[in-house]
Structures are given as C-alpha cells and as structure tokens.
Write a structure and sequence with these properties.
With about 375 residues, the chain is of the alpha/beta class. The protein has 13 helices and 13 strands. The strands form three sheets. It has an eight-stranded mixed sheet with strand order 1-11-12-6-5-4-2-3, sandwiched between helices. It has a three-stranded parallel sheet with strand order 8-7-9, with helices on both faces. The termini are far apart. The N terminus is likely disordered.
C-alpha cells in the first residue's frame, strides 16, 4: 500500500462505552443516490472475535457517534464474521439486499470481499474500508497508520535490548494473518527498523492472528534455536503475544525477552505491568471510529466537502489508486506511560488493571 500521510497527532479523548485530501477529491464510485436526512442505516461489518476491540470499543463508539450525528434517528447494524470470509460475504450481501445506506467494512479477506464491494457499488451503496484496506471500488479508507505501527514496534524492541546483547541480537517474528493487508504493512514497518540490526531467526505468518497458533509457532522456534538464544520477539498483536508468553512459560523461561503487541488489550497491559510483555501499540479507537462514523453519515447526507476534509491522506490498493484516506497516528505503550494513555483516556481504570493478582506489580511501578 502506498501511503501519503499528513495526519496530525491525535488529541486525548476520554470516552465511556456500552456493549454491542485535497478538497473535492472524494471518489464517488457509487451510483447517484438522493441525499438523505437523519433517518439512515449504517451497516458495520467487523472481521473477527479473537481481538476484543471490535465488540468492546469500535462498534459501540461508531453506534454512539452515528446516533449523535443523526439526533438518535440513525440506526447502526453490526455483524462480526468470526474470521470466516464466506460468512462476511453473506453478511454483506444481506446488508446490500436490505438496502442499508452505507457500509463500514473491516474485511476478513481483503481480496475475497471484492465481489461484494462491486455489488454494493452497483446498488448505489457507498463502502468505506475500515481498519483494513479492502480491494474493489471502495469510496474511502479510515484506519491507523499501519506501517507506522510496525515501525513503532520495531523501534521499541531496539530500545529494549539496547547495546547489552553484543553484536548479534536475534528476533523471532510472529506476524499477522496473510489475508489481512494490515499484517503486511505491520511487517514492512517492523522490518524497516529491524532487518539491518537484528538476525531474524524465525519468521511466521499466523492465520487469523490465532493465539494458539502463535503459541505453537513460538514453541517451534524455541525448539529450533533454544530458549536462551532469543533476544526479542516481535508479535503483531496482543492476542498472539499471550500465546507467545505461554510458550515461553512452558519452556521454563522466567526472564522474558522483550515482546511487542498491539491493541492495548487489558490482559496485555497487565502483562506489561508484570514484565511479561514489553510494549503494545495503543490505538485510540475513538479517533478512528468517530471519523469513520462521521464519514459514513456525511456521505449519505451528501456533505461531500466535509468528507473530503476528513480524508486528506492517500493510499493505493491492489485494485484502486489514490484512495481518499484518514491514517490515524499511534502510540507506543510501555510501563512508563500506562497512566497517561489508557487510564487518562478512560479506556481502563487503575482498579481494572491492578486487580489483586497485579497489585504488587502495579505498586512497584507506581501505578496507583
């Protein structure tokens, strides 16, 4: 994916959750439809359930913002495909048949969803790719800066190991799902930092970001190169980092190498507190989700200039070029900034992080 990012740093946004370009550059690839008022339906399609962010954060934030923008007259319909591309195809087909007004699509498989994106275009329904860049005639892309995610993870590993390991530090890479275009960008970003400074001893692409598969891959790496010969572990996200930690524990490791993550899941933040995981990439979901909701509502309501102003970045997919986009910056979360990030932003409270199991470790790092 080619990116031209001109996003500014995200501001701190506190929120509470309940379950659940250049101007005029917006690519109107759908058939013309009459602009609607507040009585609109936004379809939201999310890819998987291993990562808890979709149900706990993204969907509730989108739903809340749609309601706010439409004076509680707009409806949000949410579906999650559970990592099954065929299920997501069926979910999207149903939304098209039921004539939702706009679709926010986070694709399980960015390529296999293309026929449904084309079907939506033919029906005059705009499709905004969310978080993952789907192929086909999408209208815009709202996501985080995914190459930057990998760069941040790679830099964190280098900072963690410093110069104490001598001249040949080694890293095991446990990358994300091959069907997710973001995984390739995470990997590209990480390699841009690591490839000339560390030896990559094992490199895995992990279907579905499966924690169990990540655990198996890490077990394989330990058997192949030895538990004492691993300087650092690159994990594309927090769910897999949990599996990696289990593999290291099962191998008898007590002093963990620095391990990366992504998504700032509560369990990952707790592992960072105890030192089992070195860092996670914190992505302010409100920044991404609220922009996506605004773009969806404004598109349906015919506010093209306002949508243009939201999508000043540009990206290329394998099928489309110069796609209007919004690439939101990310933050490296370590022990040192837990309070100033996820706690200050209202993602978690100190009490949620520092349960009885973690109280002593929290006290040790001054998290109170």
């Amino acid at each position: 994916m080619r990116r031209i990012a001109i996003s500014t740093a995200a501001s701190t946004i506190a929120f509470s959750l309940a379950g659940c370009s250049a101007l005029n550059a917006w690519q109107d690839t759908t058939s013309s439809r009459t602009a609607k008022g507040n009585d609109i339906t936004v379809g939201v399609l999310m890819p998987e359930k291993t990562n808890v962010r979709y149900a706990e954060f993204d969907c509730p934030i989108i739903k809340k913002k749609v309601a706010e923008l439409t004076k509680n007259q707009g409806e949000t319909i949410y579906e999650n495909a559970g990592s099954d591309a065929s299920i997501q195809n069926s979910q999207m087909r149903k939304m098209i048949d039921e004539r939702v007004d706009v679709i926010l699509l986070d694709a399980v498989d960015s390529h296999l969803i293309t026929p449904m994106v084309k079907k939506a275009k033919a029906a005059g329904i705009p499709v905004i790719a969310y978080d993952r860049l789907a192929e086909g005639p999408i209208n815009a892309y709202i996501s985080f800066d995914n190459e930057l995610v990998g760069e941040v993870q790679g830099r964190a590993l280098l900072e963690a190991i410093g110069s104490s390991t001598g001249t040949s530090p080694t890293v095991v890479m446990v990358n994300g799902s091959p069907t997710d275009p973001n995984a390739k960008m995470f990997k590209t970003g990480a390699l841009s930092e690591l490839s000339d400074k560390m030896t990559i001893t094992k490199n895995y692409d992990t279907d579905g970001y499966s924690p169990k598969l990540a655990q198996s891959e890490m077990t394989d790496a330990i058997k192949a190169i030895g538990k004492d010969n691993i300087t650092a572990v690159y994990s594309a996200n927090d769910a897999m980092a949990g599996g990696i930690v289990k593999a290291l524990e099962n191998a008898g490791v007590t002093k963990f190498p620095p391990i990366t993550g992504q998504d700032a899941e509560l369990t990952a933040v707790q592992r960072i507190v105890t030192g089992e995981q070195y860092m996670t990439v914190y992505k302010r979901y409100a920044d991404e989700a609220e922009v996506a909701a605004e773009a969806a509502v404004m598109k349906v309501q015919g506010m093209s200039i306002q949508v243009d102003a939201l999508t000043l970045d540009r990206v290329d997919s394998p099928t489309n070029k110069n796609i209007p986009a919004r690439l939101v910056p990310v933050i490296s979360l370590t022990r040192s900034n837990i309070k100033s990030t996820v706690v200050t932003d209202g993602l978690y409270t100190v009490d949620q992080i520092c349960t009885a199991t973690y109280r002593a470790a929290c006290d040790a790092i001054g998290l109170k």
